[in-house]
């Protein structure tokens, strides 16, 4: 039952991030300075997060990548400022497992891991609706998140931070800072086919 409580608490923390505007201020305080020094991530963890979030949300024509809107910085601040020490330790253990999976040998430098290897990791471990987490099925009472749970949570945080960023909210999504006017007509036509900003 402890595993369920741990997962429930992790889910509550994620749900809190959606509803608390102060969490989004974390993203606004992130800078894209090339000398970004993470508060939580180790050097290897930083490398992994930067690569994973850019595979989850890559740069496309007219739309920036996740790293261009400071998603790794947000995730680092989120872990540091929102999660408790126990959850931070669980994330550290999950990162150790992910890094060990990515590196073919212990001596391999994490910077030598290719985009294809990161993509293969995500393809093998990201769950979609209806998929069964075999690791969780094999050990239902484990307190530590499985690779599937960890990577799905990372994906969730990536998307949440990306959509909540100022750059995406104002320049990619439909943005109306003071929605006082009422519009009549086709929503697709009025919005230009864009979703509304948070």
Characteristic terms for this protein:
198 residues; single chain; globular; mainly alpha
**Which structural class do you get from the secondary structure elements?**
mainly alpha
Number of strands: 0
What Rg, in angstroms, do the CA atoms define?
18 Å
H-E string? HHHHHHHHHH
- The stretches of 5 or more residues where confidence is low (pLDDT under 50) are none
Distance between the termini: 36 Å
Beta-strand content bin: under 5%
Average pLDDT, to the nearest integer? Answer: 79
Q: Which geometry do the CA atoms define?
A: globular
Q: Tally the helices: what do you get?
A: 10
What about the largest sheet? Answer: none
Helix content: 55-70%
Give me a quick take on this structure.
Helices cover 58% and strands 0% of the residues. It is mainly alpha-helical and 198 residues long. It is globular.
Can you tell me about this structure?
The structure is a single chain. With 198 residues, the protein is mainly alpha-helical. It is built from 10 helices and no strands. Helix 4 (71-81) crosses helix 8 (147-164). The chain is globular, with a radius of gyration of 18 Å. The two termini are 36 Å apart.
Task: Draw up the topology in text.
Elements: H1 2-19, H2 21-29, H3 43-56, H4 71-81, H5 85-102, H6 115-125, H7 134-138, H8 147-164, H9 166-171, H10 187-191
């Amino acid at each position: 039952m402890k595993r369920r409580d741990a997962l429930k608490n992790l889910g509550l923390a994620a749900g809190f991030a959606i509803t608390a505007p102060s969490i989004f201020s974390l993203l606004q305080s992130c800078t894209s300075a090339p000398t970004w020094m993470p508060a939580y991530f180790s050097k290897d963890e930083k490398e992994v997060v930067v690569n994973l979030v850019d595979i989850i949300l890559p740069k496309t024509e007219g739309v920036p990548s996740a790293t261009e809107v400071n998603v790794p910085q947000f995730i680092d601040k989120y872990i540091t400022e929102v999660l408790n020490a126990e959850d931070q330790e669980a994330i550290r253990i999950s990162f150790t497992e992910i890094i060990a999976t990515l590196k073919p040998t212990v001596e391999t430098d994490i910077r030598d891991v290719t985009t294809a290897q990161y993509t293969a990791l995500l393809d093998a471990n990201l769950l979609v609706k209806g998929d069964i987490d075999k690791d969780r099925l094999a050990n239902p009472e484990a307190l530590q998140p499985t690779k599937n749970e960890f990577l799905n949570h990372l994906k969730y945080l990536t998307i949440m931070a990306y959509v909540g960023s100022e750059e995406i909210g104002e320049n990619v999504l439909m943005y109306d800072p003071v929605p006082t006017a009422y519009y009549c007509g086709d929503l697709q036509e009025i919005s230009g086919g864009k979703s509304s900003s948070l």
